[in-house]
Amino acid sequence: MVVTLATGGLLGLLFFWLSWRVVQVRLSAQVLLGDGGDAELLSRIRAHANFAEYVPFCLLLLLAIEASFQDSPKALWAAGMALVAARAAHAIGMAKGGTNAFRAGGALATWGIMIALSVWALVIAVRY
To answer: pLDDT (tens digit, 9 = 90+) per residue, 82-93?
Structure first.
């Protein structure tokens, strides 16, 4: 389960960074609940929430696929590291604000990885 551990560890650090960015604005804007109408806080909340919406499902697929093999396939390593890169790109894009290549690329890559992992999981399930 080394692929899932490594991927989860890296994504956990990224999730902490996104959380910290929310807390920084909450403290400076003195908003304890919701976004208080603060556009920057709303953007940071959404970056954090988007991560929380996609990453757990992708990690679950990664874990299930990895558990079905004796050794971790190189393609699984590639998927895990691509997920880390995609989520980092999306986070950077959200920090830049507006529509930009990092945000769009990170979102599209996340979807692609999620679809690829889902299909891979279905192929494994059909073979059993």
So the answer is: 999 999 999 999
